[in-house]
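Please check this.
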Amino acid sequence: MEESPPRESWFASWRHRVRGVFRRETLGKDALAGTILGIESVPDGLAIGLLAGVNPVAGLYAFLFGMAGAALATSSTFMAVQATSAMALIVSDTDLSTLRDPDRALYTLAVLAGVIMIIAGALGAGRLLRFVPTAVMVGFVTAVGINIVLGQLANLTGYAGAGANRLFKAIDTFANIRFFDLPTVIVGLVTIVLIVVLTRTRLRSLGLVVAIAVGSGLAALFTFAFNWEVLTVGDVADVPSGLPAPVLPSLDDLGYLALPALSLAFVGLVQGAGVAAGVPNADGRPADADRNFIGQGVGSIVAGMFRGMPVGGSMSASALIVAAGARTRLALFIAAIVMAVLILVASGVVSLVAMPALAGLLIVVGVQAIKPARIHSVTKTGPLQTTVMAVTFVLTLLIPLQFAVLVGVGLAVILFVAQQSNRVRVRRLELHDGSRMREVDPPPAVPPHDVVVLQPYGNLSYATAPVFEGLLPKVDERTHGSVVIVRLRGIDDLGLSTIAVLERYHDDLEQHDSTLWLVVAGSHLADQLEAGGLLGRLGPDRVYESSEWIGEAVRRATRDAWDWVGARR
């Protein structure tokens, strides 16, 4: 058998990526794409910080340093590692204000989430993401979109609703429309309309920047011309005129931050996997999920050390930089440089950005996250998937997101087990002259003086063992002097629960002067049967090992079984 090529080392892959960045023939396109992403990332970063309930500048730093830190570390060439809406909501629900130093706790959370991502990548956890069902992700993302909208109603209306969660706060907000601040509402609605209109023109994503600028200009007009106060970024946070100095994480907060960091890592990695699938590499090489994990972890650690919030793969930013014409990773570095220049020379302008304008941007993002077509596709797959989607959706609306994410993971496991259970089947093999075999339904009960050859299909793990047991022919008062042969070809693994099922079945057969024989493929299953104690009970003469000739072992076992039955008549 031909061996697969050895996997490229992480360092060799990193060196290859460095060599491919600085190319004269692609410099112009990368500079243009990076400039567009860098300009667009400034209002986006502020908005994400606002959504997270932290200093909006932390979102700005997360975009800058997360993107620069991960640019050479990811396997996906165009993966822009930035703070995302879902991650921001988890940060918001973590309630860092209860800690002694909330700002430093935020940076620690970013570093801890990054460490978890790197560990996940080093352990090869990328293959586990395929077990997260679409129903869970659709329910989660839809609820996140609604949460984004509900979470920005206070900044959009100027009225802070009261309630246990965003849903109840929204209900209280709409019950008190008379307390809305009219200038704030006007700025927010104008920004929303401009975003919707301008992004459909040739401006595309730069329409976001124009809309924020117009909305903020309108807020300034209200303030200076009519003395109507509209909150700006400068009113809620100090916008520095320089780049931040690095800071070390706080070890005292690790226990409190462990669970949200785990949830952040999971959400970031799932979103990063979506980026890898939706934004392929220019050279056609498939992205390595584990290296993307590591790259996102590096970006989050760098963001945290430079006073930013947790980051992960951003589909919108990655798609934007490709649509803008990027050819190499250099575009990501240029985007980070553009952001740094804007922070250094235009911090005064950043502080004038209106909060309701940022809220309008986030509301548009939240609405766009709701995909009715995907919801409809899940409902068409069946009641089980629809129920899982609905439960995930409701929980994400009602409970903090760090818990909702973990519940979603649990639902994914339950759904996977349920699906595997539904796929377990047992068929009877009828052997005819020559080499022909026919599959038929097994008998409801084991007939007397007969040889019944059974072929199970599916995953015979611990969770599916009861299903497998229920599919076996019953042993009743008519059963006598028979042999049941269970052919385990195609079964890669047997859990102890399944071995216990076979052992109970053997006991029932023995009580009716019958017996159980097995045909196994490979020594691995035989070792598991021995570890479970069943091999010793059956004896080596009743366990047949398959060869490379398909059907040879089961035919040999069947001949011997008929001899055994004939001797007892």
Q: What stands out?
A: Residues 27-51 form the longest helix (25 residues).
